[in-house]
Amino acid sequence: MNKKTPSSKSARPTRRMALQMGTVALLLGTQHIARGASIVAVRVWPSKDYTRLTIESDGEIKTRQFFVAEPPRLAVDIEGIDLIPALRELVAKVKSDDPNISGIRVGQNAPGVVRLVIDLKQQILPQVFTLAPVAAYKYRLVLDLYPAQAADPLEVLIAEKLIDNRSTAPRTENPPAAAHDPLGDLIAQQSGKPASSASLSPGKPADNKAPAANSVPAKPPTAIASAPNGKTDRLVIVALDPGHGGEDPGAIGPGGTREKDVVLQIAHRLRDRINQQPNMRAYLTRDADFFVPLQVRVQKARRVQADLFISIHADAFFTARPQGASVFALSDKGASSSAARWIADKENSADLVGGINVKAKDAQVQKALLDMSTTAQIKDSLKLGTAMLGEIGSVGKLHKPKVEQAGFAVLKAPDIPSVLVETAFISNPDEEAKLRSDDYQVQLADALMRGISRYFAHNPPLARNRQI
Q1: How far apart are alpha carbons 427 and 346 in whole angstroms?
Q2: pTM over 0.85
Q3: SS3 78
Q4: Highest mean pLDDT among 62-66, 340-344, 360-364, 434-438
Q5: Which fold is adopted by the domain 236-458?
Q6: b/e for 256-265, b at 16 or more Cβ within 10 A?
Q7: Closest CA to 52 of 279, 360, 291, 331
Q8: Alpha carbon distance 343, 362 (integer Å)
Q9: Which CATH number fits domain 39-147: 3.20.20.70, 3.40.50.720, 3.40.50.1000, 2.60.40.3500?
Q10: From its phi and psi, is residue 256 left (phi > 0), alpha (psi between -120 and 50) or beta?
Q11: How does pLDDT run across 230-250, given as a tens digit for each residue?
């Protein structure tokens, strides 16, 4: 009978333990890989400008993507993960009115590889990139889907105005009387000259025929030269810029109110007031909940040849209960106060939170554009800010009695008077309640409209050829 030696007794348990430990290590390794790429959240941000999809994870994930033109669709392979319910949620998040996406399919393409297939409504120029953790976000995979043929925003604005004019014009065989122009009256009062019914009226196509209600002019109307009294006979465009949006919520009040929501509501109210003017049209850099990079906001305003640019915010502050509204203009000589510098730095960091593709081809071009600010623009911006501050003060407290200045990136359009309005401090519970109030929003929109009119009363818009 063979006897087992002590060494042989210890050898077998050691091998068994090694196999067990190897199995455990393999299981832990698999779990670690899955855990390292766990999906935290998925989000879809549709807009007519572009649709953004974000997949947030607690670890970096690798992707490969390819675009198929007919029918248009984008396929994205996400490596290192298995199909989980969080990814299936993307399918339900696509709405029927999304202008760019018709649907999403998701499936396990191979072990450890999940494939997303995004079916598109039109030809798309996709941008796919990743973002490192910032603010409340972990790692993000971003898919930005831009229409290959984007609508010309200036042509759309003018077409909308012409359609409005046709819908409100009296039906008569005789030529309609010119609409009353309250802004023209106000400017005339300041200049001491009688108002002209033609002053500041929208431009018209060369053949004097308005386009059909469902069409857009091939080219926008040409502006008419300045009238002898210093006024202009053309459409005046005011660019409204609701801060933040989409992935970037902005400041959040103690009651959970998000800055991006209230400033969009205020911008909509102000837009309605501007559009009621017979000679004016508002253009929003974002008209829904989606993210717009800072330099793109400036680019959009210049694309429509805006006469004014007004960025609307409701920030938080580092003190416990700050109060009052503020108006800021650009500075090329440093901030006018430490508070102005702090707010500017905070607003300028919006791109980090919202997420921009730093590899975009025109990034350097846009950065150069933001360095083209002029002394004349800053001077006019201070005039606009002063006019608006005087009106805002009639509906609530002011944080500062004069226009402050700092290096706000969003105010650097070289040829457009630009201001940033902090409507109130959302971090203050009392002011947060005001910002959520319909009454305060209405009063504030009225005050901003009066400020715009007051500015134009002393600074009539210049003649401009709006052809591109």
Answers
A1: 14
A2: no
A3: strand
A4: 434-438
A5: Aminopeptidase (3.40.630)
A6: ebbbbbbbbb
A7: 291
A8: 27
A9: 2.60.40.3500
A10: left
A11: 454 578 999 999 999 999 999
